Amino acid sequence: MNNKKVRIGLFGFGCVGKGLYDVLKTTPGLKAEIKKICVKDEYKSRPINKEYFTINKHVILDDPEINVVVELIDDSEAAYNIVTEALRKGKAVVTANKKMISENIENLLYLQSDAGIPLLYEAACCASIPLIRNFEEYYDNDLLQAFSGIMNGTTNFILTDMFNNDRQFAEALGYAQLHGYTESNPVLDLEGYDSKYKLNILMAHAFGLIVKPQNIFNFGIRRINSFDMQFIREKGGKIKLSAKARKLESGGIAAFVMPEIIYKNNELFIVDGVDNGIVTENYFSDKNIFIGKGAGAFPTAAAVLSDLSALSYNYKYEYKKKRQAENIYLDKDFYINVYIRYNRHNEFHLNELEELYEKYDSKTWSYVTGKINFQKLLEPGWIDDKSLNVMLLNDKIMKNK
Could you tell me the domains of the chain? Predict the structure, then answer.
């Protein structure tokens, strides 16, 4: 676009859409304007002129003056249709829909290449924290060995509240809902799906690994109870829902989402509330830490704004690591250290652990800590026992016993 004016067709005018409208008004340096906004309900009262709005997507998609489509709706299937049609019509696209991107990333890669049109989605991964472009550009030569962190503000808020205020999970969830920190259906957050979608997208840029999200293991926070919290307090730790990706000696990538027990020597120990935090491990520069707001109207709108600015200079993702990657794959045969809590009626087999570190029994709950092969968690029925809670311990991912 050679820094020409960006004429935007916006899909969705919820929290983030309205945030983008407000942010654009305060950034005169970017030559961008919203020409039309597509919404579901044309009669809903809104704080700007009703002439902006339409319920017909083709008013935007068929307008030759609109050169950028910004997609900010919840429906991932509808979002995919909008994004693909916009690209085929030669319009650049900015989206924040991590579920849509993660589930369709291979098709979207092909379509971008075939159409020669950029698709940017920084806002889909941890909102205001600039990860994707850093993975694409800054870490191009400083080879990434691993990245991990807190990629969901809702679960981080709940876990912080449970720890600081001694709340049960259900009570902390209600408190988060009261403060507007959850979606209407919070399952995607609580079970780790939201974090998994982000992890999957970031792996494409960090390592060139393209996989279906259903192939990545995710285990959420809903089973964490007061017994687990008491264990954590006694050990001087905290619980975070962690998304992890690490290169292994095999040449494969270990990647998963699950609760993790961390201690004060962990860089993310101080990341509480709705904040997100990511740590990268790099071949030359050791570690870098990114901390910031992972959700909210203005943080997400700021990421969309950054993509719009990049589009004005014809920026597009090059997926450099994908071109460099040879025989890279998702490896599931490795070992991790875990904490496993179970009740006295649960016949937890200690021989499933490669090594036993600690064991505690009581009339209500018991726990063990030890080393286990990650593939055990994937066996049918093993993780399905609702009386069982599993958490990563000491950030250990080992290829060999």
Answer: 6-133+298-318 (3.40.50.720), 135-292+327-398 (3.30.360.10)
